[in-house]
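Thread: Newbie trying to understand structure tokens

Hi all, I'm a second-year student working on a class project, and my supervisor (Dr. K.) asked me to get a predicted structure for one chain before our next meeting. I've only ever worked with sequences, so writing a 3D structure as a token string is new to me. If someone could post the tokens and maybe explain what I'm looking at, I'd be very grateful. Here's the chain:
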Amino acid sequence: MKKIVGLIFAGIFAFGMGFGTASKEKKVLLDAPDGKKYEFVIGTASENGSYYKAGLRLEKTLNNTRAFTTDGSWQNMELLNEGLINVAFVQGDVYNLWLSNHKSASEKLAVIKTNRTEYVQLIMRKDGDEDDLQSKDAKVFIGLPNSGGAGSWRNMTLLEPNYGEASAITGPLDIIALNDLADKKFDAIIRTCHISLDDEILKKVNSNKFIKFKDLDDKDLNDNIEINGKDEPVYNFSKVKIKDSFLGNSVRMLETHVYVVINTDLTTRKQRGQIIDKILLYGTGLFE
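---
Reply by user tm_fold:
Sure, no problem. This is what the structure looks like when written as tokens:
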């Protein structure tokens, strides 16, 4: 099992005053949507996703903890900021985009960057091309409005402004959306998640004779931007395996990572230490 090795801290090492023990601190309890109080209220994503699996694992191994489903990364950041949850799983690209619009919030957020990779994927009809996304007539399905896929699309339109000409369509990303793509109701799907060969959407795309995963090659998509005071790319291009076959088995996608974001106003140093201990214990297995 791999362990997390990368740690980044929002607000100039917010964890520097946040991960030691502090016996005099009073334990924080947070009101949860179910009307009860918990030490940890965790924002995840849909109940069939890896974030929810990770949240349930933490729920079972941390005392007085509850994981709740949400629309995804963008909503998780909003809930953290509003104080309705105190721990969240968030795509790295969405975190950076959200924080660029809420810079003062960094003072109360501590961030653990994990080794869990997430990939922004482009799904189109087989006769489609990535350049089609730059047309004002293009229609791009981006999942639920507050999902990670929607956040990735916002990032992409900032990095490649020509994408902003396209119309964004929202809704659940399921077999119906894949069939709508095949039926030309829209031109592309942007999806962000971890990729494995047993992923149901991946298998359905691979078995559909009208649609396929397409390479994301636009060089603007890994331009450097200012992130926490440093110039670095939001994404890296990565070849990702999508089939067991020898030919045509990989596609170029945009790579980001999962962040665990903690509201430091709503947790004690001891509580934050408990979170990081569990994350280090499970590594990327936390999500599986």
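A couple of things are worth pointing out once you decode it. The longest helix spans residues 269-282. The helical segments are 10-13, 50-61, 73-82, 92-100, 148-159, 175-182, 200-207, 269-282. Feel free to ask follow-ups in this thread.
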